[in-house]
Amino acid sequence: MFGLNNISRHVLAGAVIVLALSSCSKSESYSELLRDEERAVNWFLAQQNVEVSAPADSIFEVGENAPFYRMDADGTIYMQVIRIGDKENRPQKDDKVYFRFSRQNIKMMYEGTQDSPYGNADDMASDVGPTYFFYGNKTYPTTQQFGTGIQLPMDYFGYGTEVNLVLKSYSGFVNDQSLCQPYLYNVKYYKAEY
Question: Looking at CB atoms within 10 Å, which of 52, 100, 128, 160 has the fewest?
Answer without folding.
Answer: 52
